[in-house]
Design brief:
- By secondary structure, this protein is mainly alpha-helical.
- Helices cover about 60% and strands about 10% of the residues.
- Strand 1 and strand 2 form a beta hairpin.
- Helix 4 (about 45-70) runs antiparallel to helix 5 and helix 4 (about 45-70) crosses helix 9 (about 140-155).
- The longest helix has 22 residues, at about 45-70.
- It starts with 9 loop residues before the first helix and ends with a helix.
Length: about 230
């Protein structure tokens, strides 16, 4: 089948180096639900393709982790997979393919504001992968996702998959059968750029302090620092 030179997605096809077999799949993959209001259509959007694309990406990322993280424990493999398929990495792939230029949205939607956030781009990335899987096959889709996701698999810092608060709590309860507490020490900076400082306390003793742009992050940092002290 030859490419339709009048297709609004011709630039995307060229960047992917594909000849689509079923252009309707890509039309659906790039249609936001808000578009239905203007077009007076129903369920003609990317949500079903997003479902299958999510599973395909999950399989590919799991395969990449299994093959490239040979010393990683199964639990950490699951955490890394969950982090990668639900993080900004999919929005980054969407932006690298300029999907924001092709997504059809309703007239009431501010395109610029919509695409400043990651969530819609993540969803459309999944739906596009679903369309590519159905139209071009698994081998092509695997290679595309691998090219983008393998660096994340290899280089993602283990800090993002370790729940330091849970680990510290488990360690302390195993040894002492008591829990730790977190106390907010101070908040510094303007409302749009705050820094939180938190202490983690056990039996009235400060085990460590931590900082972060959110209270939750400061608590994680405090737990991490406490674990480091316990290992010394």
């Amino acid at each position: 089948m030859s490419q339709n030179s009048n297709s609004p997605f011709i630039g995307l096809y060229l960047s992917l180096n594909i000849v689509p077999h079923n252009e309707e799949l890509f039309e659906l993959a790039l249609t936001h639900s808000s578009y239905n209001s203007d077009a007076n259509t129903k369920h003609h959007d990317y949500e079903r393709l997003e479902f299958i694309g999510d599973s395909v990406i999950g399989y590919i990322v799991a395969d990449l982790i299994y093959k490239n993280k040979k010393d990683m424990e199964p639990g950490d493999m699951s955490k890394l997979k969950s982090y990668l398929v639900k993080s900004h990495s999919l929005a980054t792939l969407a932006r690298s393919l300029h999907l924001q230029d092709y997504i059809r949205v309703g007239n009431s939607i501010d395109r610029e504001k919509m695409f400043q956030a990651d969530n819609v781009l993540e969803d459309v990335c999944e739906s596009l992968v679903g369309a590519l899987y159905l139209d071009q096959g698994l081998e092509f889709t695997y290679d595309l996702v691998k090219e983008h996701m393998l660096p994340y698999v290899l280089n993602t810092d283990e800090d993002v998959i370790i729940d330091y608060k849970t680990k510290l709590q488990e360690d302390m309860q195993t040894e002492y059968r008591e829990s730790v507490q977190y106390v907010l020490d101070k908040v510094e900076g303007p409302a749009h750029d705050r820094t939180f400082t938190v202490s983690v306390i056990f039996n009235g003793m400060v085990l460590a302090q931590g900082t972060g742009k959110r209270k939750k992050d400061a608590e994680e940092d405090a737990a991490k620092n406490a674990l480091k002290k316990r290992s010394v």
